[in-house]
Amino acid sequence: MPTLKDVAKLAGVSTSTASRVLTGAANVNEATKARVMEAIEKLGYQTNFVAKSLRQRRTGTLALLIPNIRNPFYSIVTKGVTAVAKQHGYTVILADCDDDLQHEVETINRLKNRWVDGFIIATTSEKNYDHLLALQDSKIPLVLLVRKIDREITSVVVDDYRGGYLGTEYLLQKGHRRIAFIGGDLNLSFNRNRYLGYLKALKDWGVEKDEEIIITRIIGHEGGYQAVNELLLLEKKFTAVLCTNDIKALGAMRAIYDAGLSVPRDISVMGFDNLDLSALSIPALTTVAQPAYEMGEEAAQRVIDLINNIKPPNLIKLMDVSVVERDTVTVPPVYL
Amino acid sequence: MPTLKDVAKLAGVSTSTASRVLTGAANVNEATKARVMEAIEKLGYQTNFVAKSLRQRRTGTLALLIPNIRNPFYSIVTKGVTAVAKQHGYTVILADCDDDLQHEVETINRLKNRWVDGFIIATTSEKNYDHLLALQDSKIPLVLLVRKIDREITSVVVDDYRGGYLGTEYLLQKGHRRIAFIGGDLNLSFNRNRYLGYLKALKDWGVEKDEEIIITRIIGHEGGYQAVNELLLLEKKFTAVLCTNDIKALGAMRAIYDAGLSVPRDISVMGFDNLDLSALSIPALTTVAQPAYEMGEEAAQRVIDLINNIKPPNLIKLMDVSVVERDTVTVPPVYL
DNA sequence: ACAACCTATGAAATCGATTGCAGAAATCGA
DNA sequence: TCGATTTCTGCAATCGATTTCATAGGTTGT
Question: DSSP for A295-310?
Answer without folding.
Answer: HHHHHHHHHHHHHTTP
